[in-house]
Design a protein that fits this description.
By secondary structure, the chain is α/β, with parallel strands linked by helices. Helices cover about 45% and strands about 15% of the residues. The protein has a single domain, classed as Alpha-Beta Complex (2-enoyl-CoA Hydratase, Chain A, domain 1), CATH 3.90.226.
Length: about 260
């Protein structure tokens, strides 16, 4: 597989996807999201791939958010469609893969980056990792599953705090709250993920796929929280706060929310 923004390799029934935009701290733009979809889809159909590890290039960032330049001038309708397509193309798609996905969080995982890590089936972080959902500082809300998956993982109260303050937490804090399973030194991150993957490979892939489906079903109820998130994410694009937040970000200044 040849991609502009990804590196993909396979060894011992384990495939590793590396998001490779180091000059942008591996930020998720439209093209990268589409490439990730294609990579996951192809690996899911490859029966020799039993586990997928997703990580970022370099030692600074897993994914430091979305590419804000791409949507800073979007309308309500465009913002709604951005979230809906993101859910369908990548985030829900990853969560519902029958092939286990481990996120190797090797640095900053912010906004869409943390949402991608949370869509994976579990997470391992390096000591230098920092995680957060800073969207409200831009006048918008998390739009790729963050308002749903974060409370599932860390509890409602901590999720409310993280989202409302737009604060980052350390890798050790993330482990304390159950957001990541392990925290290790940078050089031990991928080896540990591979060690865990090899344990998974020894087990029934059919049973694992069924277990993923069953576990995910526990978090599905009559109210489509993701649908509410998509709607409210889109509405944010019609607000003055969104315009001010994104403009301030692009102008490298602090926002002045009225």
């Amino acid at each position: 597989m040849n991609f502009e923004n990804l590196l993909v390799n396979q060894h011992n029934n384990i495939a590793t996807i590396t998001i490779n935009r180091p000059t942008k701290l591996n930020a998720l733009n439209k093209n990268t999201i589409e490439e990730l979809h294609q990579a996951f889809k192809t690996l899911e159909s490859n029966k020799s791939v039993r586990v997928i590890i997703v990580t970022g290039s370099g030692e600074k960032a897993f994914v430091a958010g979305a590419d804000i330049k791409e949507f800073a001038d979007f309308s309500i309708e465009e913002g709604t469609e951005l979230a809906r397509k993101g859910h369908e193309t990548l985030f829900d798609f990853v969560q519902n893969l029958s092939t286990p996905v481990i996120a190797a969080v090797n640095g900053f995982a912010l906004g869409g980056g943390l949402e991608l890590a949370m869509a994976a089936h579990f997470r391992v972080a390096s000591l230098n990792a920092k995680m957060g959902l800073p969207e409200v500082s831009l006048g918008v809300i998390p739009g790729y599953g963050g308002t749903q998956r974060l409370p599932q993982l860390v509890g409602k109260g901590k999720a409310m705090e993280m989202i409302m303050t737009a604060s980052m937490i350390s890798a050790e804090e993330a482990k304390t709250y159950g957001l990541v399973n392990y925290v290790v030194a940078q050089e031990e991150l991928l080896p540990l993920c591979e060690k865990l993957a090899l344990k998974i490979v020894k087990n029934s892939s059919v049973a694992i796929g069924a277990a993923i489906k069953a576990i995910n079903a526990n978090y599905t109820n009559c109210v489509n929280g993701y649908g509410v998130e998509i709607e409210q994410f889109g509405v944010s694009f019609g607000t003055d706060d969104f315009k001010e937040g994104t403009t301030a970000f692009l102008e490298k200044r602090k926002p002045n929310f009225e």
